[in-house]
């Protein structure tokens, strides 16, 4: 009996030792998962902030381009009036005014191309932001156990 009791005690000690190790492993796995989720959220937030700063810079540049275009437009109207002889300025000769007018047209074209590039960058940023939100939504959907999802959830997950 004494040996049987010792045997059962040592056996139950083994079981007791293995159960905490399993829960310890589960806790460690859970901690790793939480840490990974936290790091992922931080990375997403950093990417979001980078896109926001870039979008703000693009917006400022678009405003500067618009302001420059307005100034060129005003100067262009004045120059065209001089070319037509509607203005009193007889100090410039016609070839110099034509040269200025062509330079003005070239500058306006450059600004229009630059504006188009900025608009494309802004659109890319919007698409990146949309993609990031969809990825986050998909991660949330995938985190839910499949047995808890109904058909609508599964369809939405497939659509994302």
Give a summary of the structure in a few sentences:
It is built from 3 helices and no strands.
Task: Write up this protein.
Residues 1-18 have low confidence and may be disordered. This protein has helices at residues 2-84, 94-143, 151-159. 89% of the residues lie in helices and 0% in strands. The chain is rod-shaped. The protein has one domain (28-143). The longest helix has 83 residues, at 2-84. The chain has 160 residues and is an all-alpha fold.
Topology summary:
Elements (H helix, E strand, L loop, with lengths): L1 H83 L9 H50 L7 H9 L1
Helix pairs in contact: 1-2
Strand elements, count: 0
| Cα-to-Cα separation, first versus last residue | 65 Å
Give unreliable regions as ranges.
1-18
Number of helices: 3
When the domains are counted, the total is 1
Bin the strand percentage.
under 5%
H-E order: HHH
Protein name: MICLK protein
Organism: Oceanodroma tethys
């Amino acid at each position: 009996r004494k040996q049987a009791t010792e045997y059962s005690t040592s056996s139950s000690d083994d079981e007791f030792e293995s159960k905490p190790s399993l829960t310890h492993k589960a806790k460690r796995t859970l901690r790793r998962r939480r840490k990974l989720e936290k790091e992922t959220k931080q990375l997403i937030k950093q990417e979001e902030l980078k896109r926001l700063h870039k979008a703000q810079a693009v917006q400022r540049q678009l405003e500067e381009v618009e302001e420059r275009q307005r100034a060129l437009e005003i100067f262009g109207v004045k120059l065209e009036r001089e070319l037509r002889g509607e203005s009193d300025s007889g100090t410039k000769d016609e070839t110099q005014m034509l040269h200025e007018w062509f330079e003005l047209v070239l500058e306006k074209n450059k600004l229009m191309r630059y504006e188009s590039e900025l608009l494309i960058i802004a659109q890319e940023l919007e698409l990146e932001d949309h993609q990031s939100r969809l990825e986050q939504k998909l991660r949330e959907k995938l985190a839910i156990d499949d047995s808890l999802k109904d058909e609508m959830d599964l369809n939405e997950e497939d659509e994302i």
